[in-house]
Amino acid sequence: MKISQITRSLLFAGLGLLLIFSQGQAGETPLKAFPERIILNITQSPYSSQAITWRTRQQAAFPRAQVIRASELFHQGISPNTVGAHTTAVDINNQALVYHHSVILNALEPDVLYAYRVGDDDHWSEWNQFKTASDKPEPFTFIYFGDIQEQVHSMCSQIFRAAFQEVPESKFWLFAGDMVDNGPDDDEWEGFFNALGWIPRTMPLTLLPGNHEYPDRRFIPPEDYHITNLWRPHFTLPENGPKGLAETVFSFEYQGVCFVMLNGNEQMETQAAWLKKTLSMNRQPWIIVAIHQPVYSISERRDRKEFQNLLVPVFDQFSVDIVLQGHDHGYARTIPLRNNQSVSGKEKGTVYVISNAGPKFYPPSSRYDHLMAKTGGRQPLFQSIRVEGDILHYTSYNYMKQVFDVFEIRK
């Protein structure tokens, strides 16, 4: 009797394990078909378009996005518009293919809340929302982050959540490079997206590459020095930059501000010429530039004199208001500068900011202390920047949402 009960128990246990294993195997394919790493990106015209990118681990027959005014989402008889996606297959470490999909939603109306989802047939994301920009100058706020780079999932998730909680009205987030430590490593991008959670599904991001999105030039031949092959599949960014630098150098306008994203890793002379041409056509009252490597470095290990020679004359000529930077794993804000020195009287100057959002810090240098208004901050920071009429309000916070630095620029 006891042997029979044991046998029967073992049999039921074995059948249960087999059922669980079979369900896991059967459920594997649908999971691979569901969208992941969904992200909104700023376009060249954010008042009338929106870029969306996502990934599946299985090839989709008809990947697409559906979009509808959020106010009409629950109305019967009103169907969403459908936009087919462009798909890029990416080989991960010569082990598996994944599929990145992207769409740009065009002909949207300014200042309207939209709902959207992405997917294929029965494998859809949840419905998410985004709001288009206004097509005229209006007050708005955005968040700027310096380097994240290390312990992105375990530590930097705190800074993202603090930023979202402290500045929920932000219209987009700007990352000044080094989102990961090793750009070609897909696992590190997994950590980046996990740290962000659902935020990039509703908060558009604009990103520019740092040196860690490139290989280490010390160990490779010059012809192999290019941005990681994972950059363009993951993000759909404006392609109005110089030839060969699409989606790493670009500009866009947002409610009275001309934003220019530069790539400090290559072709700087080409970028300087493009920057001058771009700013010569600008009609927006404010100009904000972002670049990963600083113009006035606070690191003991480096000093970018070529940036001062190439970029500062252009910044001065067109009265750039503020330059947002990373790379030096610390914090610094200059006084208003022109021609590499402080401005006098009512002369217009440019403020240069370096910030750091991750747990890695470098020893600071005193090289440019005479140009600095604020330095320090061996702590992760994020910055809220609000443009309101003729005033730019800037506030830097630490990961506990405590104010670290405040200043204003007035036109």
Low-confidence stretches: 1-27
Overall pLDDT metric: 91
The assembly state of the depicted protein chains is: single chain
Q: Count the helices. How many?
A: 7
Q: Give me the CATH fold name of the largest domain.
A: Purple Acid Phosphatase, chain A, domain 2
User: Count of DSSP E strands?
Assistant: 24
CATH architectural group of the largest domain = 4-Layer Sandwich
Strand count, sense and barrel status of the largest sheet are:
7 strands, mixed
Strand order of the largest sheet: 13-14-15-16-20-17-21
Helix content: 10-25%
Shape: globular
Radius of gyration: 24 Å
For CATH, the homologous superfamily of the largest domain is named as: Metallo-dependent phosphatases
Strand content: 25-35%
Q: Give the terminus-to-terminus CA distance.
A: 92 Å
CATH class descriptor of the largest domain: Alpha Beta
Class inferred from helices and paired strands = alpha+beta
Q: State the domain count.
A: 2
What would you say about this model in short?
The protein is of the alpha+beta class and 411 residues long.
Characterise the protein shown here.
This protein has 411 residues and is of the alpha+beta class. The chain is 21% helix and 31% strand. The strands form five sheets. A seven-stranded mixed β-sheet has the order 13-14-15-16-20-17-21, with helices on one face. Helix 2 (152-166) packs parallel to helix 3 (186-196). The longest helix is centred in the N-terminal third of the chain and has 32 residues, at 2-33. The model is unreliable at 1-27 (pLDDT under 50).
